[in-house]
Every structure is written in structure tokens, then in C-alpha cells.
Specification:
- It is a single chain.
- Helices cover about 50% and strands about 10% of the residues.
- It is mainly α and about 190 residues long.
- Strands 2-1-3 form a three-stranded antiparallel β-sheet, with helices on both faces.
- α1 crosses α2, α5 packs antiparallel against α6 and α5 packs antiparallel against α8.
């Protein structure tokens, strides 16, 4: 699945979609005399994403393909299990952990993937990820807005109504995106 991104010129959202489309919109915005300080955010994690915007669209696309995994559709897959998008990395465990993993059906990799999937589906893990994404985004664009600190306290306390009332005075696009990121942060 392709990740989505959004770009903001201060408090105004100027683009949302796949990273290449957002990068093209940002380049057009800058060329039309738009503000020089545009931030691009990962729509899921709320993290600021740096993108090389100098040069042609083809150069920007090549940079994205090389530097940001799964940001564009139809990326050429690496060796291994391409349909799964498996990425090999190193983890460090104690010998007893390796022994336990080796005794599990399917071996260490299958067991670790299964454990990670189960943990990621836990409601509390999803709630925490949404809180962190909302916090990262709001800090970047609304850190100086009235009620910011109280809103973040309400976010982490699970107080949806209070959070909504505290961000009500924020600029419209920032408020909408912040609310969207916070949707999964509220206890069920």
C-alpha cells in the first residue's frame, strides 16, 4: 500500500496524496511565489518528510524512489520475498530468545513477524501510535497556537471532547488534519 502525505504552507494545506504528487504540487506552489517554508508530512505518522525538490520532476521521483521506501507505487522490488516486501535487518537477542524462536513452527522469522503483527493490532498500540502522530504534526504546525499544551494533555488523557474544544480556534486546515490524525487516539 502506498503511503500518503500532505504539505502545508504555514497553516494552509496545499496538497495531499502520494509523495510524488505532493512534491509536484509543492514545487508548483513555490514556483508561483508561495512561501519558501513548506512542510511535507507523512499522513500516518505525522512526521515531517524531507524531499529533494530541486531539479526536474524525474529527478525528484528518482530521489524519492531511492530514499523513501514505499512512498511510490510500483517500486521495483528487491531480492527475497518481493510480494511481501520483506526487508532484512538485524536484531539482537539473548541465546535463550534465539532458542525459543528456533523451536517455534516456521522458525524465527515467521514467529517474529507473527508477534509484531499481533502487537501492532492491539488497540492500545494503535491508540498510542495515533497520539504520537497527532503530537508530532501538531507540534510542527500548532505549537504556538492557543491551548496547544492543554490540547496535547487532553490528547494523551483520552479526552476527545476537551481536545476538540481546545483546538477549535486553530487555523481550519491545521485543525482538520490534527483531528483526522487523532481519530484513532480515542479509547473505544
Amino acid at each position: 500500500m502506498t503511503r500518503t502525505f500532505c504539505a502545508f504552507d504555514h497553516a494552509r494545506e496545499i496538497a495531499h496524496g502520494d509523495l510524488l504528487s505532493v512534491a509536484r504540487a509543492v514545487k508548483a506552489h513555490l514556483q508561483s511565489g508561495g512561501e519558501r517554508l513548506v512542510l511535507i508530512f507523512d499522513s500516518e505518522s505525522g512526521q515531517v518528510t524531507d524531499v529533494m525538490l530541486n531539479g526536474s520532476d524525474a529527478e525528484t521521483e528518482a530521489w524519492i524512489r531511492e530514499n523513501i521506501a514505499d512512498a511510490l507505487p510500483n517500486l521495483p522490488r528487491a531480492r527475497g520475498r518481493p510480494k511481501l516486501g520483506v526487508v532484512s535487518r538485524e536484531i539482537t537477542l539473548l541465546p535463550r530468545h534465539w532458542a525459543w524462536l528456533a523451536s517455534q513452527p516456521g522458525g524465527a522469522s515467521v514467529t517474529v513477524r507473527r508477534l509484531v503483527e499481533a502487537a501492532a493490532k492491539e488497540p492500545r498500540a494503535q491508540q498510542r501510535a495515533a497520539q504520537e502522530a497527532t503530537y508530532r504534526f501538531a507540534t510542527a504546525l500548532a505549537g504556538n497556537e492557543p491551548g496547544f499544551e492543554e490540547a496535547m494533555r487532553a490528547l494523551f488523557a483520552g479526552e476527545s471532547a476537551r481536545f476538540g474544544s481546545l483546538i477549535a480556534a486553530w487555523p481550519e486546515d491545521v485543525r482538520k488534519r490534527t483531528s483526522l490524525l487523532a481519530e484513532a487516539a480515542w479509547p473505544a
